[in-house]
Design brief:
Strand content: 15-25%
Largest sheet: 7 strands, parallel
Pfam family, one: Peptidase_S8
CATH topology: Rossmann fold
Helix content: 25-40%
Strand order of the largest sheet: 3-6-2-7-9-10-11
Number of domains: 1
Number of strands: 18
Organism: Nonomuraea insulae
CATH superfamily: Peptidase S8/S53 domain
CATH class: Alpha Beta
Protein name: S8 family serine peptidase
Number of helices: 11
Keywords: Hydrolase, Membrane, Protease, Serine protease, Signal, Transmembrane, Transmembrane helix
Family: Belongs to the peptidase S8 family.
Distance between the termini: 49 Å
């Protein structure tokens, strides 16, 4: 039976001090991410309008003023784990949704959280509980909850999702999840998942553990960077990592019009999902393979040789990704479950690192083959599940007229 380990908290630095912060202070706390991803420039081309991003997580608060009217509450696959009458906390899911599609509030939306794709819509699909919920132990032990992620993926696809964000991870792949990933890709859905927060845990001294669903072929696996845009110490490093994004001291929204700050590959994943939404809004027929290629080809802070296991092909750049997508938009390549594993399909340029990345020649690697190798290695890991969550540092209550 699949076991789900306790939710892992990741420490984050306190951003605010003193009295409750004004909402424009929240936006100020986002400026480093906005600059790094070059969002101001990217928004001249796309803001994600018309795209539906499914957030497979702990649930999203649809009433947070920075997400109001942008959230569709979908199915709860954890139903029955909590005792009757207990409401879900929805912290982690709201946090991730705000990074993807927060639209702010107040005059011209200039207060509160602005997401990477502020005009995108969110489909909330609840597939995990947070550790403080009373049904957490039941959820982690009952066999009926064994394949909730796989079921959530299929549900999101059937509900019309264009992008699926999975800021969740576990150490062993399942047949049902693999099939669900294949189904999503065959329908043209872009899947983005967290590489994991066990970067200080080495396997034979060569790499950090592989996490699923990130290490499945065809999934965009995201690592986290620190303020210097280097691999954050907690971020998993292995050949499944495709790209990276900021993951330290990231400001986001929480239930009840609160604001949080934290760190993790969860946050980095949500930011990359937002960039994928920008691409799908501008080029709705672009296949998952070409979206992944646009993200990788256009990344900044590329490692020496073009690729390494720490940050993949580099840090995602939204403006560059849109420009690269424009060049790729005329291609007719598609990524089915089989094609996503085809070693003949090159993804991006770069010298391979000293891990399981297949070198096509001195300057080209096939990343999806690398991901397939990651899946094979990851299957040897112990059977445990980790959910990548940020640690709540401080709640900031902000007045409605702020």
């Amino acid at each position: 039976m699949l076991r789900r380990a306790a939710v892992a908290a990741v420490a984050g630095a306190l951003l605010f001090a003193g009295p409750p912060a004004m909402a424009d202070d929240v936006r100020g706390g986002q400026q480093a991410v906005i600059k790094t991803l070059r969002l101001t420039e990217a928004w001249r081309t796309s803001k994600g309008a018309g795209v539906l991003v499914a957030v497979l997580d702990s649930g999203v608060d649809p009433h947070h003023r920075d997400l109001a009217e942008s959230v569709r509450v979908g199915k709860d696959f954890t139903a029955g784990a909590n005792p009757p009458g207990v409401s879900p906390s929805r912290l982690h899911g709201t946090y991730m949704a705000s990074l993807i599609a927060g639209h702010g509030h107040g005059p011209q939306g200039k207060r509160g959280i602005i997401g990477v794709a502020p005009e995108a819509d969110v489909l909330s699909v609840r597939v995990i509980l947070e550790d403080e919920e009373p049904g957490f132990r039941e959820f982690n032990s009952a066999e009926r909850f064994e394949n909730v992620v796989a079921r959530g993926i299929r549900y999101a696809v059937d509900e019309g999702a264009d992008v699926i964000n999975m800021s969740i991870s576990k150490e062993l792949a399942t047949r049902e999840e693999r099939a669900a990933i294949r189904y999503a890709i065959s329908k043209g859905v872009v899947l983005v998942a967290a590489a994991g927060n066990e970067g200080d845990r080495k396997i034979d001294g060569d790499f950090a553990p592989y996490s699923y669903p990130a290490a499945f072929p065809g999934v965009v696996s995201v690592g986290a960077t620190d303020r210097r845009l280097r691999r954050a110490t907690f971020s998993n490093w292995n050949s499944s990592v495709l790209v990276a994004a900021p993951g330290v001291d990231i400001m986001g929204a929480g239930p009840g019009d609160e604001y949080w700050v934290g760190r993790g590959t969860s946050q980095a994943t949500a930011l990359v999902s937002g960039v994928a939404a920008l691409l799908k809004a501008k080029y709705p027929d672009m296949s998952p393979l070409l979206v992944a290629r646009a993200l990788a080809d256009s990344a900044d802070d590329r490692p020496p040789g073009g690729y390494d296991t720490a940050t993949g092909f580099g840090v995602v750049n939204a403006a560059n990704a849109l420009a690269q997508a424009a060049r790729l938009a005329g291609h007719t390549e598609s990524a089915t479950g089989a094609e996503a594993q085809d070693p003949a399909v090159p993804l991006a340029g770069g010298q391979a690192g000293p891990v399981k990345v297949i070198v096509r020649d001195e300057r080209r690697v096939t990343v999806y083959t690398a991901i397939a190798a990651a899946a094979a290695v990851g299957a040897l890991a112990s059977l445990a599940v980790i959910f990548i969550l940020v640690r709540r540092v401080r709640r900031e209550h902000i007045s409605q007229d702020a």
